[in-house]
Design a protein that fits this description.
alpha/beta, 43% helix, 26 helices
Length: 619
């Protein structure tokens, strides 16, 4: 039969033709003017480029990791090798009998070599890629004579969408054949494709889970997911904060127990409200069922919302990385027993952070008592802090009056604008910090106090120390843990969360119907520096709501000082910016390697390449 090959390469006519797949391949080789005697030049990858190919095809190699040894064991020591190639025909992996591995290397049938038809003529790997189907190429059916000592069986590997990923090949010596090898290579291909599909499903699940978690953290409401056993499977930072619990104390626990419901959570209706209360703090909650295509119950998702008054007092809105980091640092501070100093410009939300630290701390069930040191006359601040005894001064309440420290017993006392505290009161406060006891004014009896101190200031305390206006020893006692609250201009993304909340709040207080906010107005708000920070933004929104004529707030509703700010360039899509930044960080951590970066992000390599092209990220 080898005479058929001889007549074809000599250009002779023959009535006997080999298999049509082989014949089509021979014609392609002739059109490409390949030398039928030997390969003129092998396409071999250097070690670094081969390693790059291996990394780019990590998903394929992972799916084939257990399949290749299984096929070798099936062949039971016979002189065969099993090869895995990528979609360009480059051999990535070769396993098999040592003797035949050596023989195969004489024709570069080894890792790093390209076996496409254009390079090596008719062969099982290249022809399977060209025909996109399983093929066998035996001995003389190879177009190039130097490969006639080979018998090969190969099948293409495709993903769930039918895209060609690579080729699985079994090769042995000419004359050694087995009809079951066609079935074996097809079986191996199916096993690899199934593994790829399972891996893709797992990656999709991880990506969806990570996406849900990331999206939930952008919500200003608490976000909770519950499985069909009534256990909490996910909760965002806002939800943990509102419940006044720790994340590890919530995940995996029955929802009825976490929400302090007296009955189990069943969700027989499409919607179910749960009673939620933590230390007397009322929260609104609402959950919806999640069902599969058959209508079977999978779980529930829902939101937690503080009452309007509670939101105003304790809840901080914002999706920016700066805000997330601030909350993370606040949570770390809450886990300690140390004194905390919060620094930030006026109007940035220092008291909100203080309340957050309190509610995340072991003292969250105790009282939170706040005192603005700048708002109390110097003659009264000491009695406000430490209280007074019966008859200690004219007009004193009969029986005396406890001070803020006593009122904060087993809880937290928040000293706002501590830089304005009189020097004599600073000395007394220092002694309280050291001794954990107080004297009421006019009293000789000491009273033990157990209250955590959180202080806040918009001033440079170190500068006040240098000027002799603040005690150095008290300064170091207060700044054991320091939290810096960034100004709103450094976390402008938070405006996208703060504005809707302030609009809703103002509409409710002013008895107006709900209002929307135009994109043009958001653009102007994002362009302004907000020297008065969140307090100024809130006042601005209240003014716009009060004076607006329609139900959509626009640029014309802006107060003059804000309207005069320079128009911002197009803010663009924040989500796209965040996605691009996450991809850049993953590539940076993996030193530009695509496969590890894709694995870190929980997406496929193809998806990552598409995203890189979409966001104009160079590999």
């Amino acid at each position: 039969m080898a005479k058929l090959w001889q007549r074809f390469v000599n250009g002779e006519q023959t009535d006997e033709d080999p298999d049509s797949v082989i014949l089509r391949s021979w014609h392609r080789c002739r059109e490409n003017r390949l030398d039928f005697q030997q390969v003129a030049r092998n396409d071999l990858l250097p070690a670094n480029l081969l390693q790059q190919r291996v990394e780019e095809n990590e998903e394929l190699l992972q799916a084939a990791k257990d399949v290749l040894p299984f096929l070798i064991r099936y062949l039971k020591g016979r002189e065969f090798i099993v090869l895995l190639c990528d979609h360009d025909g480059y051999v990535l992996k070769a396993l098999g009998h040592p003797t035949f591995l050596s023989k195969a290397q004489t024709v570069a049938l080894s890792p790093g070599a390209n076996w496409r038809e254009e390079a090596k003529g008719t062969n099982a790997i290249g022809t399977a890629l060209s025909e996109r189907q399983a093929v066998k190429v035996l001995g003389w059916e190879h177009y190039v004579r130097e490969n006639h000592f080979l018998n090969c069986w190969a099948a293409p590997i495709k993903d769930a969408r039918g895209e060609l990923l690579g080729v699985l090949d079994i090769s042995g010596a000419c004359g050694v054949t087995d009809e079951r090898l066609c079935e074996l290579v097809l079986m191996g291909t199916r096993m690899i494709e199934q593994n790829l599909h399972v891996n893709e499903l797992q990656n999709s699940y991880r990506f969806c889970s990570a996406g849900i978690k990331m999206a939930s953290q952008m919500l200003r409401d608490g976000f909770v997911t519950i499985n069909n056993r009534g256990e909490i499977t996910e909760i965002n930072d806002a939800g943990v904060y509102m419940l006044g619990k720790r994340r590890e104390d919530v995940l995996g626990r029955p929802a009825a127990e976490v929400f302090e419901s007296k009955t189990n959570v069943s969700f027989y209706g499409e919607r179910r409200k749960l009673p939620v209360s933590e230390s007397g703090t009322p929260l609104q909650s609402s959950f919806n069922q999640v069902k599969d295509e058959k209508g079977d119950f999978l779980g529930a998702v829902g939101v937690l919302q503080p009452t309007l008054q509670q939101k105003e007092q304790t809840f901080w809105l914002g999706r920016s990385e700066e805000t997330k980091k601030t909350f993370q640092n606040g949570a770390k501070a809450a886990s300690t027993l140390s004194t905390v100093l919060i620094q930030g410009e006026s109007g940035t939300g220092k008291e909100v952070m203080a309340r957050y630290v309190h509610q995340m701390s072991p003292r969250h069930r105790g009282p939170f008592v706040a005192l603005n040191c700048a708002a109390i006359p110097q003659t009264l601040i000491e009695s406000e802090l430490f209280g007074y005894a019966d008859g200690s001064f004219t007009g004193a309440k009969k029986g005396g009056q406890p001070g803020k420290f006593e009122m904060a017993q087993n809880g937290t006392i928040f000293l706002d604008e501590v830089g304005d505290m009189p020097h004599n009161v600073q000395a007394t406060l220092l002694r309280v910090l050291q001794e954990k006891e107080i004297y009421r004014i006019g009293d000789t009896k000491t009273r033990k106090v157990n209250a955590r101190i959180i202080a806040a200031t918009n001033q440079d305390l170190k500068k006040l120390v240098d000027e002799g206006r603040f005690r150095l020893d008290l300064y170091y006692r207060l700044k054991v843990v320091t939290l810096n609250i960034p100004p709103l201009r450094e976390r402008s993304e938070d405006i996208l969360d703060l504005v809707p909340y302030f609009v809703h709040k103002a509409c409710t207080e002013q008895g107006r119907s709900a209002m929307a906010v135009s994109d043009a107005l958001y653009k102007r708000l994002l362009a302004y520096d907000w020297p008065g920070n969140i307090r100024e933004l809130q006042n601005c929104v209240e003014s716009m709501v009060a004076l607006a004529e329609g139900n959509v707030l626009g640029e014309d509703d802006l107060p003059l000082e804000v309207a005069g700010a320079t128009m911002a360039e197009d803010a663009g899509s924040l989500l796209e910016k965040q996605t691009r930044q996450v991809i850049l960080e993953a590539l940076d951590k993996t030193k530009g390697k695509i496969a590890p970066a894709a694995r870190m992000l929980g997406i496929g390599r193809t998806t990552l390449y598409r995203k890189m092209e979409e966001y104009k990220i160079k590999g």
